[in-house]
Amino acid sequence: MAEHEGRCLCAAVRYRLEGDPFDCGWCHCRTCQLSSGAPAMAFASVRAGQWIVTQGEEQVRRMRSSSFAERLFCGCCGTPLAIDYDIQPETFDFSVLTLDDPALVRPGFHIFWSSRVAWFDPGDELPKYDRFRPNTVGLEGTEPPDG
Ligand SMILES: [Zn+2]
Ligand SMILES: [Zn+2]
Fold first, then answer.
1. Does the first or last residue of the chain, that is N or C, have fewer Cβ atoms within 10 Å of its Cβ?
2. How far apart are CA 104 and CA 102, in angstroms?
3. Closest by alpha carbon to 15, among 84, 96, 89, 103?
4. Domain annotation for the chain: domains and CATH numbers
């Protein structure tokens, strides 16, 4: 497995991954847009407990961003770090761009394409889903709001 480490903008918070990331994709939901100030965010998953804060634990803030998830960010610089889904206790999603080398983890799909800002064209051929991917763990048969 590759060694993956990451940090926030001010570097108060540092983390490392203790497993290989998987299911990397873009999210275009409004919550991601507002949280990041960007058209979309790229997330990837690791197994629960494999996203380890190695420095600045006291700076990691949590904010309930929906009925089923909390967002983690640096309390000093505001960098969005991760999403912790109540409904997916086996996995943990982190922001790929906070990796020291974000190029190592490549998105494979787009979700919440229906919320994409009209002027943003990623120009790729990846699968695009209006909302969550079909059969997303914890969401089968439900219609929750954005994460
Ligand atoms: Zn920071
Ligand atoms: Zn999103």
1. N
2. 5
3. 96
4. 4-115 (2.170.150.70)
Cα Rg of the chain, angstroms: 15
Distance CA 38, CA 41 (A): 7
**Average of pLDDT values for 88-102?**
96
How many angstroms separate the alpha carbon of residue 73 from the centre of ligand 1? Answer: 8
Query: If you measure from the C-alpha of residue 74 to the centroid of ligand 1, how many angstroms do you get, rounded to a whole number?
Result: 5
**If we measure between CA atoms, which residue out of 72, 73, 66 comes closest to residue 84?**
72
Strand order through the sheet with 110-111: 60-66, 69-74, 80-85, 91-95, 41-47, 22-27, 110-111
**Which tens digits make up the pLDDT trace of 106-132?**
999 999 999 999 999 999 999 999 998
| Count of Cβ atoms closer than 10 Å to residue 13 Cβ | 27
